[in-house]
Amino acid sequence: MEQIDSDSSAQERPLAIICGGGTLPFAVADAVRRRGRRVVLFPLHRLADAGAVARFPHHWLYLGQYGRFRRLARAEGCRDIVLIGNAVRPALRHLRLDWITVLLLPKIVRLFRGGDDHLLTGLARIFEAHQFRVVAAHELAPDILVRAGPLGIHRPSSRNLADIEYGLALIAAIGRFDVGQAVVIGGKRVLAIEAADGTDRMLKHVAALQREGRISLAPGESVLIKAAKPGQDHRFDLPSIGPETVDAAAQAGLAGIAVVAGQTVIAEPERVAARADGAGLFVFGVESPNSGGQT
């Protein structure tokens, strides 16, 4: 059997980036190229931005084409893999399976019987069984992580800070069920918990509750809190925010967004700060609850 590369030799090879939607895959690719390493993108049909993909060497994939990926990644000399970008978990019947994936189907079916972290960690084990190594995007591009403190000109109030602490405790409590990286809290009242709908749809639901008068809090008195689940594999699916998150939070009448510094990925930080400042919202990186820092 072929031997797995040492860390040093693997880092000299091209990096394979399996791309979902959004701008983060390209931010990572640009950061890695600036450090002198070649990247090869493997964008997913119907998810990745074709215009942005065209700037890089790439091979398009359909979900379920693991055999195609394995063959092309090996031909490119890739051993390290980053999985990043927005994606919706597909139904098994919607996968476009090649022969190698069909052989792996019993394992894949078992992975679908659980939460997202269960699924992604299991997929990483499949890659690693075939001599690939799944690495965290932020290890290669640390600038994509949110830093501690305010991103723009606005800061959370003492009441907001209390809600942030409450929200972090809630995410930690429900995380063992492999659900939810985001909650909306107002006055220590739970207004929404993210599930399969995702953050943007959750915020649209909060906005609808505001319009219907089912939330009695005044605009600007609730907070979106995002954090990784306890025990989550940080190589993929870290919480993320971008300009669209700010827009959705503003439409939902929130005071701001709080995320865990060093454990949250941010797309287009300058645009995030500008939109938050324009909407009167704060975007704030809090210290990790496990770091001993204060919110």
* Number of E strands: 12
Q: How does the major sheet shape up?
A: 6 strands, mixed
Q: Note poorly predicted spans.
A: none
Strand order of the largest sheet: 5-12-10-8-6-7
Helix content: 25-40%
**SSE class:** alpha/beta
CATH homologous superfamily designation of the largest domain:
LpxI C-terminal catalytic domain
Strand content: 15-25%
As a whole number of angstroms, the C-alpha radius of gyration is: 20 Å
Which of globular, elongated, flat, extended, rod-shaped describes the shape? globular
- Sequence of secondary-structure elements: HEHEHHEHHEHEHEEHEEHEEHE
- Output the CATH topology of the largest domain: Cytidine Deaminase, domain 2
CATH top level of the largest domain is: Alpha Beta
Mean pLDDT: 88
- Helix run count: 11
The CATH architecture of the largest domain comes to 3-Layer(aba) Sandwich
Query: What's the domain count?
Result: 2
Distance between the termini: 50 Å
Structure overview:
There is one protein chain. This protein is of the alpha/beta class and 295 residues long. The chain has 2 domains: 134 residues, 3-Layer(aba) Sandwich (Rossmann fold); 142 residues, 3-Layer(aba) Sandwich (Cytidine Deaminase, domain 2). 38% of the residues lie in helices and 16% in strands. The protein is built from 11 helices and 12 strands. The strands form 3 sheets. A 6-stranded mixed beta sheet has the order 5-12-10-8-6-7, with helices on both faces. Strands 2-1-3-4 form a 4-stranded parallel beta sheet, sandwiched between helices. Strand 6 and strand 7 form a beta hairpin. Helix 9 runs parallel beside helix 10 and helix 10 runs parallel beside helix 11. It starts with 6 loop residues before the first helix and ends in a 9-residue tail after the last strand.
